[in-house]
Amino acid sequence: MTSPSDCDRFDMCGAPICPMDDDWKHRVMLDDEPICFYIRKLVRGNIGGAYPELWPIARVTPILDTFPRMRHHLCDSRGTKRTII
């Protein structure tokens, strides 16, 4: 079991939805809130080696499906996804 406080970016992160939070399904995300650094990196296709257990598509896709505005914000200016998730 992981906790958001285990993340190396926890102290500077303001994202309400964290893939390290097993209870993310019970959280709320408002339009103007930040998106997890590692989710952004994954969608952009340049995720590094940090927390590899979190980055299978099966772990992040449900988050993006639950929060469609997050997926929308991760699109480029033309509205196309940077990677397919």
Key terms for this structure?
mainly alpha
Description:
This protein has a domain at 34-44 and 53-85. 27% of the residues lie in helices and 0% in strands. It has 3 helices and no strands. It starts with 36 loop residues before the first helix and ends in a 12-residue tail after the last helix.
Summary?
By secondary structure, the protein is mostly helical. It contains three helices and no strands.
Layout of secondary structure:
Elements: H1 37-43, H2 57-66, H3 68-73
The rounded distance between the terminal residues' Cα atoms is 24 Å
Basic shape: globular
Mean pLDDT across every amino acid position: 78
- Detail the poorly predicted runs: none
How much beta, percentage-wise? Answer: under 5%
Largest sheet: none
Radius of gyration: 12 Å
| Total count of helical runs of at least 4 residues | 3
Structural class: mainly alpha
Helical content class: 25-40%
- List how many beta strands DSSP finds: 0
Pattern of helices and strands: HHH
